[in-house]
Amino acid sequence: MTDRTRIFRQKTKRAGACLTCFMFSFFLSSCVPKVPVSDKSAKVEFFSMNTINTIEVRGPEAEEAANAGRDEVYRLERLLSRTDPGSEIFMVNAAEGEWTEVSEETFNLIRTAIRYCGETDGAFDLTVAPVMDLWGFTGGEHRVPDDAEILSVLDRIGYEHVLLDEAKSSVKLEIPGMSLDLGAVAKGYAGDCVIKIIQQFDVKSALINLGGNVTVFGSKPDGNGFRVAIKDPEDPEVYLGVLELKDTNIVTSGGYERFFESDGKVYIHIMDPETARPAQSDLLSVSVIDPDGTRCDILSTALFVMGKEEAIRYWEEHRDLGLVMATTDGEVLVSENLKDSFEVTGGKSVTYFG
Ligand code: AMP
Ligand code: MG
Predict the structure, then answer these.
(1) Of 89, 114, 126, 270, best ligand 1 pocket probe by most atoms within 8 Å of the beta carbon
(2) Taking 90 as the threshold, does the pLDDT of residue 8 lie above it?
(3) Which of 55, 91, 158, 317 has its CA 20 to 30 A from that of 262?
């Protein structure tokens, strides 16, 4: 690891912690004076889906809700992980071209993911797993493959080769060596599921942070939305801005989240499925804001791969989405529907589009 990489990592880790404190301090400090004595709050912090997660809940059944939310994330990890031999995704990947019966839940998630693969013209592709393996992102032994290896892996990528049989709730990967990776959607989907679980309890509000994918339910005790900061990908100690959010999700994708360096070049973990190489994006990060966490997660990855112009074009056809994008030339682009909720806090110039 070079010095630059190490410093970047340290900064990124610190900034992650800052973001958490920032959000939670608002949550906790503001609830102290106004909450009735009978009201309670609870917080659980746990490791799952390869990341640190936090669930904070306020309300009479806060503790039960937070624990149930955590168990839900564990359940989804067991279902969707591609490295856990007990998971349904592992079973599909290991089936070597045979049909595999999966639960209705896994089937529906795969079907949703495939729909977005088509809608994003393959910028998001759930069959990217062999590319992640090739570049060493799966086991952690990063490497730069040669052109022949890249060419040969391309034959095994393509969402159109994932076959679905709804009547039998079954999935088949048509080409030998294909495999599914739900890494760009699982946490967003988990956010949606956790919210559903938490709402089964007597709770007033919740703030869920699954490795930076943030879901908010309800509002702060004073009725205002939760304030969630977006990191500057070039200086994780600075925030691009702060959003005030109620009953929605904010999911960010960026190359700075996971990468390695070799011979002075940086290789990021978000792949362009068309080239089987790290995406050459003119964006440093994309944050998507929407009540559907699954959609947020998929689109943050897809729009990052598409790059600035295509992402704006996509937004023009989906104007209900909120978007905040940091570009490689130092701009911050914010969709005009966020004008009232986005507060600029960093030093970068912000342009509203739409
Ligand atoms: P995210 O952090 O949500 O952008 O997801 C990144 C993760 O999704 C990577 O670590 C891979 O597991 C997977 N991934 C990378 N590139 C793509 C892509 N173009 N389409 C779908 N999944 C991807
Ligand atoms: Mg994603």
Answers:
(1) 270
(2) no
(3) 158
Mean pLDDT of 114-143: 96
What is the SS3 assignment for 173?
strand
Distance CA 80, CA 49 (A): 9
Q: Residue 104: CA atoms inside 13 Å, Cβ hemisphere, count?
A: 1
Mutate which of 124, 181, 277 for ligand 1? The one with the most ligand atoms within 8 Å of its CB, which is 181
* Section 150-169 average pLDDT: 98
In this structure, is the dihedral angle defined by the CA atoms of residues 265, 271, 275 and 277, taken in order, positive or negative? positive
pLDDT per position as a tens digit, 256-285: 999 999 999 999 999 999 999 999 999 999
With beta carbons less than 8 A apart as the criterion, state whether 288 and 240 touch. Answer: no
CA distances from 207 to 97, 242, 353 (A): 41, 16, 29
Tell me which of 13-17, 119-123, 158-162 is least confident: 13-17
Residues with CB under 5 A from ligand 2 (ion): 184, 297, 300-301
Give the number of other CB atoms < 10 A from CB of residue 21. Answer: 9
DSSP string, 244-310: EESSEEEEEEEGGGSEEEETTEEEES-EETTTTEE---SEEEEEEEES-HHHHHHHHHHHHHH-HHH
